[in-house]
Design a protein that fits this description.
By secondary structure, the chain is of the alpha/beta class. The chain contains 11 helices and 5 strands, in the order ααβααβαβαααβαβαα. The radius of gyration is 22 Å and the shape is globular. The termini are far apart.
Length: 319
Amino acid sequence: MKTIVKNTLRITSFIAGLLVLLLISSVILQPKTNGKTDGMNDASAYGVLGEKENSIDVLILGDSEAYSSFVPLKLWKDHGITSYVCATPSQKISYSLEFLKKTLKTQKPKVVVMETNALFRKVTVANGIQQLAEEKITVFRYHNRWKSLSLKDLSFGVDYTDTQLNKGYIFASGITPSANTDYMSKNAAPASIASGVNFYVNEMKRLCDENGAKLLFISTPSTINWNRNRHDAAQKFADEKGIDFIDLNLKTDEVPINWATDTKDGGDHLNFTGAVKVTSFFGSYLSATGLFTDKRGNTDFSHWNSDADSFTKGTGAAL
């Protein structure tokens, strides 16, 4: 019995010591700002942490389809609605949930958009454990930062005040046409919601309900990623969850994408002209809900006007 107790104490002490070491390392390696220069991963998306508290009306989550399709500064310029795109390349829905949780600590969005491409990206148990570990013990995500550590990294505090001019949108002006214009009428491979997604959508819906936000599914136009079978699978899933679903691939009158001019890479992602069409429709949809007040005349949001002007000057693209 004494041997068992000794071994148990040794194991417990080892685990406790390891946990303390991981936590201390996490504090040191955690980026001290939310900017790219300090090593923050996905700084464009994490710019939401630098936005003024309770200032974001609409949060948009998803992968590159999302950050190629929604232009927050146009939404602002047309309707005075504030929004942020927390999208990253090939974003798994487990990462989407992390962005939602972190954003809800400082923001109270009225609408949370989930771009539906992520519904077809598998999330395994191992993916989920890794995501949670990286979220809670950041040394797992930022272990390579030891190469660039400085004295300020010994601080326990962080200063997440960096903001991003484009509010998470990634500007693209190039054109590579797509000839696959009848992609929604063609027969396609059978489609089903990916394994593991159900749990994360349930969590997202719960958090949205608890925080007074409406969770909304949107499929952005893409001849590469979307088809009728994916639409049907997403619609069935949304109906089961009681989540509104808008498929812009079917709204060709309201969102008149020209696949000869509005895509940057042959139909995979939209360029700026395509994103303007999506955002114009989305802005009208949001305004019609009656959930939002026009903040363009509010001096507390005057920097959104200057950001919009800077965007146009920097890109040469009118909002």
